[in-house]
Design brief:
Helices cover about 35% and strands about 15% of the residues. The protein is of the alpha+beta class. A hairpin with a 2-residue loop joins strand 8 and strand 9.
Length: about 300
């Protein structure tokens, strides 16, 4: 019987063949890293950029574990950013007092205490960019931070704004110096909300460049033998920190029943992040696989089915 902890190269190549990929019409391209080898299936060149949507959150989390951020900020998961934001934004001074207990950990695990997530395109369509901080800090926090999960764009946006104000440098430049430049990523674009990076969404990357980030997670922060992101930080990202609502659909390998640090933490040492158009980055630590998917399907169904076939 085939060892379930191993995926053969023959299986990867077979699944990525043109005949097999025809049933995944909404998937534009897949890169699978297995050990030192890469396998690819593409309908467009690997260099074509796409908006990776919510996978942007995982990129922000990776940046926090780089030497540049660690040495210049001394941030920890216990750091509370609200006192500093109060010195920069009048709206923060009028906010719910529970903001005083919100830490970086709560922002990364989506447990700030808000009833539901917000700062999505649907709810900020009529909010001016200059009014976003007022919009964020006007929301009540009915739950004690750390006790209630609500998937949101707020936490990651505030992390980027915090770093921008703290380091007095726009966040995109921070991400470029700490992560993109060392990886050789030069073709990208990140949406702005006024003078701040959207952070939680809106990052455009090519399939090949996004796959570099997937491989960094799989390899505990290493790329080409160099430790770019702190190994312990990457491991923390992949841990199951918070149990998530039962309402999340839970396919076998991409279950959304637990959350790490800006990553979903599924069972069997699988961590992943997905985007609204069907994009996905998946690491299976046990099987030593890094999977990156670009798509335009508008849902996660095809990505889920592909990963099920690959890992099953």
């Amino acid at each position: 019987m085939e060892n379930e902890s191993v995926v053969s190269e023959e299986k990867i190549a077979r699944l990525l063949s043109g005949k097999q990929m025809k049933k995944f019409a909404g998937i534009d391209g897949v890169l699978v890293g297995h050990g030192t080898k890469r396998f690819c299936s593409m309908s467009e060149p690997q260099s074509i950029r796409q908006d990776i949507r919510s996978i942007s959150k995982a990129v922000v989390a990776l940046c926090l574990g780089t030497d540049l951020i660690k040495q210049s900020t001394k941030l920890s998961l216990e750091t509370r950013i609200w006192p500093f934001l109060c010195s920069r934004f009048p709206a923060a001074r009028r906010a719910d007092s529970r903001w005083n207990d919100v830490s970086l950990y709560h922002l990364l695990t989506h447990t700030t205490g808000h009833e539901s997530g917000f700062l999505f395109s649907s709810d900020i369509a009529n909010v001016a960019s200059d009014d976003l901080m007022d919009y964020i800090f006007s929301r009540p926090i009915p739950f004690v931070p750390g006790t209630h999960f609500s998937y949101s764009n707020v936490g990651t946006f505030l992390i980027a704004a915090y770093l921008q104000e703290l380091l007095q440098k726009d966040y995109v430049s921070i991400a470029d110096e700490s992560l993109f430049q060392p990886l050789g990523i030069v073709s990208y674009k990140w949406r702005q909300y006024g003078c701040y990076c959207a952070a939680s969404t809106g990052l455009e990357l090519s399939l090949s460049d996004l796959h570099l980030l997937t491989e960094i997670i799989l390899n505990n922060g290493k790329i080409a033998g160099e430790q770019l992101v702190d190994a312990n930080w990457v491991k923390m990202m992949c841990l199951r920190h918070v149990a998530t609502p039962k309402g999340h659909k839970a396919p076998r390998f991409l279950s959304k029943d637990a959350y790490g640090l800006n990553l979903w933490a599924a069972a069997n040492q699988v961590a992943f992040c997905d985007g609204a158009d069907g994009q996905c980055m998946v690491v299976d630590i046990e099987k030593c696989l890094a999977v990156t998917i670009m798509a335009h399907s508008g849902s996660q169904q095809e990505a889920n089915e592909f990963v099920q076939e690959l890992l099953g």
